[in-house]
Every structure is written in structure tokens, then in C-alpha cells.
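Listing S7. Sequence submitted for prediction.
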Amino acid sequence: MKKALFSGISIHRSQFFLIFFLIFNSITWFFTILFSDTIAWDLPRLWLLPAATVVSFLIGPLIAERVSRMRFLLLWVLLGVISSLFSAVLPKFGEHGITILLVLWGFSFGIGFPSCLALIPTLTRIEERGRVGGVIFFLTYAILPLFMLTIGGLDISSSSLPLAAWRGFGLLPFFLKVDLSALLPASYSSIVQRRQFLLYFIPWLIFCLINYLEHPILEQSLGANFLETLNVIEFSVGSLVCLISGWMMDFKGRKWTILIGFVALGLGYAALSLFPFIFAVQAFLTAVDSIAWGIFTVAFSFAVWGDLANNQRAEKFYGLGITPYLLAMGLAIFASPWLKIFDLGKALPLASLFLFLAVIPIFFASELLPEKMLKERELRKYVEEAKKVAGRP
């Protein structure tokens, strides 16, 4: 008999390892490339990396429908190994070689990542999906800095073999025997016409755009050190918040937890717009930004799109759902020279306004966790508290 992961979480250990290691391996591989010294952030065509990733997010699910799920994921990991090895060769061809490499990196990550995430609703129950996601992203965020400090400190050519070797470790889960149920496919047109999808997607898109488009403005006005500190704290505090928010999503609901993130971040930007150069206010924004990132990582990278798939193949739900993150990043890189001329005093109030407006669709969205399940948990909690008061075991 297969053993469950933890008490109260029914996912089998082999199933958890399959999801965890594929997500952990791919994210650490890609983010080591993206947020480290492996590539220079002043490259004029760096926006091609997130752009290629976004395009492949949408193409990958179309291919995955015609191929065995595990075979497609196997080919995806192998493509990452090959693109890592190419980083030792292509830079020798100058600017054109770097351009091809950026596109290859983005494509080799994005083509299979939605299919990787689509394993989530197949192998996890809705009532424990938040906690499983919280554990996965807590471990990923906590360990990711180690990759950036080691492999990330190398130049493009020197990082080729370590990146290829690490991506190759992504083949380990394929030695496990995990049964995947057959599900009905969904079309992109049917997904974007769903009211529930749009009510969760639009606030997430707004957040991503504000978060990344504000970065060049904050760097210009408050300095690069502030932005670096913000990123470091996001990884450390955000990883812990992933764990906590995953528990909250399973016991309090997705909608309520997401609202906390938006309201907190809106207050942070509003405070900074009034007192941009006061350290306490900067610290407050850093704290609420980390909290929001922890909540939104679990919600919009793991739980929400799997919940909305509802017994359909989830690749296209995740493909659409995670595009705002890389889309906003690419726009920020491309528009960075123009964004830096914006005045901080005008940009921050606008950011705060749009974040509060982003809350409105969430209010109209339905709770994704079944209402019956939430009521049963409240009743169970009430009974346990009543037993304690009565002095019964």
C-alpha cells in the first residue's frame, strides 16, 4: 500500500515526488538563468527570453494533446538539457548567437511547463491542493538562492555543463510508476469565455504588470540596492508565506486568501506614495510585497487554474494562467529606458489605485473551494472546541 505524504494529506509520496521534483528542477534551472550573472540584464534583446517563454506557454498545450503526457514531459526535460549544452557554443557567434540562445532557453522551459503544472489537479485533491503547493514552493524558494550563488555566478559558457547536469536530474521522476487518468481537453476559446477564469485572471494580470513595470521606476528613484534587498527578502519571507498561505487556502478558501494579498500590497504602495523616502515605509512595502508574492505564487501558479480545470485537461488553463508573469517581465525589460523617466510620486499612486481596483473582480468571483467542504471544516472545528470546553477527549 502506498504511503501518504503527511497526516491529513492523502497524496502518495511517489505522486508528490513526481510533481515536486519536476517543478523544483525546472524552476531552479530557469530562474538560475534568469536572475543571476549567467546573462547580463543590460542585453538589448533580453526581452526575447520571456517573450519566447510566453509564446511556448501557449504552444506547448496544443502539442501535449497529441502526445503521451509522460513522454511529452520526458522530451521537455531532454530539450532543457540540450539548450543548456548549446550555451557553451552559441555565445561564440556573437550577438546573433546570444539571440538564438535566449529564444532557445525560453522555448525549452515554456513548452512543457504548463503540462508539468497540469499534473497538479490530476494527482492532488482540491481540499489539499493549497498545502501541497505551499510545501513545494516553500522548498523551491528556500533552495533557489543556493543555485544562484553557485551556478548563477558563472558566465554563460562555464554554466553550460552544470545547468545541463542539473536539468538532467529532472529525469529521475520518470523511473516512478504513476497512473495518470485520461481527461477531456479544453479549448482556449472556451476557457477565456468563462466568467470565473476572467475574474481571477484579470487581477493576477494587473498585479504582474504593476509589480514589474514599477521595478525600473523604483530602481531609478530609490536605488538598485533597495530593489536587490526587495528581491532577497521576497525569496526568504515569501517562501515561508507560501507554506502558510497554502494552509490558509485549504481551510479558509482561495478567494479570502487572495484578497488579503491584494489589500496588503495596495496599502503598501499607498504608504510609499505618501512617504517614499522613509525607511519604515520602505520596510513595510517590502514586507507586504513578500507576503503577496507568497500568496500569489501558490494561488496563481498552483491552485487556482487546477481548480478551474475541474476534471478537464489543465495544460491550457495553466498555459494562460501563468503567462502574465513572464509577459509583464518582458514588457518591463523592453520598456525599461522609458519607464525610468516616470516620476515616483505619480507612478506609485497609480499603482496603488490599480491594485485596489484589482480587488473588485475577486469580490465577484466565486470561492473555488466547495462551500460544503468549508462548512464541514467549520463544524468539525466547532465540535472539537466544544469537546475541549466539556473536558472530553
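Caption to Listing S7: primary sequence and predicted C-alpha cells for the chain studied. The chain has one domain: 8-379. The CA atoms of residues 305 and 317 lie 6 Å apart.
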